[in-house]
Design brief:
It contains 20 helices and 2 strands. By secondary structure, the chain is an all-alpha fold. A two-stranded parallel ribbon has the order 1-2. Helix 15 runs antiparallel to helix 16 (359-367) and helix 16 packs across helix 18 (396-419).
């Protein structure tokens, strides 16, 4: 069997880009059928409002999720305290809750006699005005709780692996704690932080369930209504094309920032970080902060879901069919996650290590599927199966492919962030000893990237 060579990586990455571009090609094809008069009408109608709503929501969620995720990662990575392992897992578990589920739970908690309404009035008085969950800040809150784990998980790995010698060297030169963080530590975690913020922004741009339940108009909600309410696929494609343009803007900003963030840790003087210990007062504050985040984002919603589930079982609304639903979800999710992580490898390596002239656009093109609403991706993959891959139509394979196209960006971003922490010298040394791309990946990169893969 011929071993994998480095010359094969651009070819593999090109194949992944073509697969991931299928929904975009579908959008372009239908958008080209929209007449100029229709475009004029759309621009004179709701598009300016949708642009404002979508972009401001994405920026607000990025700021909130970045602050929340980075602060939680800093505490978990830099300090040692009882229960740290359990809390670190709990802080990541909101990723298992779809945004629309948390949105529905929030509507129950913040309306009528919901738990948050009672708590709010208990603190501020019975006549206090309760915040409206059906508002910009209500949507921002829910999406922040859903997306902060991206920033938390991506920042946690580099923060845990920082070379303590860098911090000590900065302090020995008279740097203040603020200067140590900004000039010695922050440059090392900036690629991971940028990747986490990018994923949070992309999630907001592509989210439909949350904004639909909370009745907040963004492009995804307008696209869905265009497709299902008016059966206007061309109009939906036109709106999707604008959404792709917004995504491209954020991609350009993220890539420009990342080009200035190429810092690698040297291994010769590496010393693993020694977590510090809190003072008793600071320990209490840390428990309150991390516990509140984990409770609001995961524990309380899951407790409410468990209560509803018990009631549903008692009423006979849940039967044996649900075991099949669970099995299908686990199988499809496992296959899609494995495929997405594997297919992201050549694209991430090409983006970080360079290659052909088109290498800089490989990752953005392969990531574009995540910004499109799920129904648009599904329609594109169905048409692809009907016209080119008929044996896959109606089976789990086309579903897995749709998931891969939709979420490939997650694998690419996390692997890129991990690769930015690995010095190219390690790969170059292996190649000088005759190792091929496969050997370098399996024996050198994979062990160092296992956190990113996970």
């Amino acid at each position: 069997m011929r071993r994998l060579s480095f010359r094969s990586l651009p070819l593999l990455a090109g194949g992944v880009v073509l697969l991931a571009s299928a929904p975009v090609l579908y959008v372009l094809y239908h958008a080209l059928t929209v007449s100029s008069e229709t475009w004029v009408v759309m621009w004179g109608g709701r598009i300016p409002e949708l642009l404002y709503n979508t972009i401001t929501l994405a920026v607000a969620v990025a700021l909130c999720a970045g602050t929340l995720g980075l602060s939680c990662a800093w505490i978990v990575a830099r300090y040692e305290f009882p229960g740290k392992g359990a809390l670190s897992v709990l802080l990541a578990l909101p990723l298992s809750l779809p945004g629309y589920v948390l949105a529905y739970i929030s509507t129950v908690a913040w309306t009528g006699e919901g738990a948050m309404v009672l708590l709010w009035r208990g603190i501020f008085g019975a006549g206090a005005s309760v915040p409206d969950i059906y508002s910009f800040w209500g949507v921002t809150l829910v999406l922040t709780l859903v997306t902060y784990p991206y920033v938390y998980l991506l920042a946690l790995t580099p923060l845990s692996r920082l070379n303590e010698a860098y911090e000590e060297a900065a302090r020995s030169l008279g740097a203040s704690p603020r200067e140590v963080f900004l000039r010695a530590l922050f440059p090392m975690i900036r690629p991971a932080l940028a990747a986490g913020l990018f994923l949070a922004v992309i999630y907001v741009l592509s989210d439909f369930g949350t904004v639909a339940i909370l009745r907040y108009d963004t492009f995804t909600r307008a696209i869905y209504l265009q497709m299902t309410g008016r059966f206007d696929h061309a109009g939906a494609a036109a709106l999707s094309l604008i959404l792709v343009g917004i995504c491209a803007l954020f991609v350009v900003l993220e890539r420009r920032q990342r080009r200035r963030s190429r810092f690698y840790q040297t291994q010769a003087r590496y010393r693993a970080l020694t977590p510090k210990r809190f003072s008793p007062r600071a320990l209490g504050a840390a428990y309150c902060y991390l516990g509140a985040v984990a409770t609001v984002a995961f524990l309380a919603p899951v407790a409410l879901l468990a209560t509803w589930s018990v009631e549903a079982v008692q009423q006979g609304a849940v039967d044996a069919r649900f075991l099949g639903f669970i099995q299908n979800s686990l199988v499809a999710g496992t296959l899609a996650a494995t495929a997405a992580v594997a297919l992201a490898v050549p694209v991430a390596m090409l983006a970080v290590r360079g290659g052909p002239r088109w290498a800089p656009v490989a990752a953005p093109l392969a990531s574009i599927g995540i910004v499109l609403p799920g129904p648009v991706v599904a329609l594109a993959m169905i048409l692809l199966a009907v016209h080119l891959l008929q044996p896959l139509y109606g089976g789990i394979a086309i579903l897995v492919l749709a998931y891969v196209v939709r979420f490939l960006a997650l694998g690419i971003q996390t692997e890129e962030a991990g690769l930015h922490q690995i010095s190219p010298g390690l790969e170059q040394a292996a190649r000088s000893l005759g190792a091929g791309a496969g050997a370098v990946l399996v024996r050198i990169l994979a062990p160092l990237l296992k956190g990113s893969f996970a």
